[in-house]
Structure prediction request, 362 residues.
Amino acid sequence: MAEIRLDNVRKTFGKVVATRDVSLSIHDREFMVLLGPSGCGKTTLLRGIAGLDAIDAGRIFIGGQDVTDLPPRRRRIAMVFQSYAVFPHLTVFENIAFGLRMQHVADADLKKRVQSAAELLQIADLLQRYPAQVSGGQRQRVAVARAIAVQAEVLLMDEPLSNLDALLRLEMRAELKRLLKELNATVVYVTHDQVEALSLGDRIAVMKDGSILQCDTPLNVYDYPASDFVGGFIGNPPMNFLAGRVVTNGSGVRVQAGSVEFDPPAHLGPALRQETEAGIWLGIRAENIQASPAQADGALHGSVLVVEPLGSHNLLTVQVGNERVKVNTHADAVFQPGQSIWLRLAVDKIRWMRRDTGQALP
Prediction:
């Protein structure tokens, strides 16, 4: 078993708090992604799990064992760094074998495990070359092969694809997903790329300012963000937010945005009644907005600012009152900058959030 548990992990650098009493449970053989912008504390948390940085407070458990004070070599982990960290003076074979030699693995077993890892990463024909003689993508595969060759129970990966070009990153992402499913290891993967997070992770922990804002499955993080920050960080384009105000109507509650009133789910009525002064955000994804050049009841009026043809669809930027809204349309839909447009929101896809705190309503 290689479950990981973090209990109130805190790490500071001088006056800067990198992680703020973070608690997180990662299941055995789970692929957990730590996602967030630069400086949010995700790499610090990963290095704390690895033992590369001593934490200031809290405890870290791997497989039920308290490893807080253990050195990295005794934590049964392997790590892939953002910079590859391959040794330029060693062949690909020796790079992959490095961790095994540190463990004093017998030569016969060492060769077998290096060959197996190289074949899994499709670099078996490169074993006698040096890092300078292979491409960046191949060097990244060497780093991954070195990590999996030691057969650690926990695999830590710190933005391993960020130095690759877009096409190679797409290719490697698919290979990594296939590979890591075969390994049956517990994986903690750090990235700032939300596409990587959504496509790879079993769960995603979204971080900001040293704290975890939401930890859930990729689908739930995308469809049910816990805050406006999560909704605005996840998705391409990110979630739109329209300012609304609560309108009480007898015993019912409605939310007005622009000239349109929306009926929120009935169970949100009590919570919405408390938001009459601060107002509310209506969060909606670009694909959940229907655009029409013809005026329609219950639709928001706007003006097209930008049309971006993206092949499979067009992405429109529309000015609606004081807000700019991103809308996906069919590739054959014809809109021009400056054109009037009416937007109909899928009410069941709206996420209702407090405007003062940004938190989603329960």
Summary: The chain has two domains: 4-233, 240-354. The CA atoms of residues 5 and 61 lie 5 Å apart. The first helix runs from residue 42 to 50. The chain has a mean pLDDT of 92.
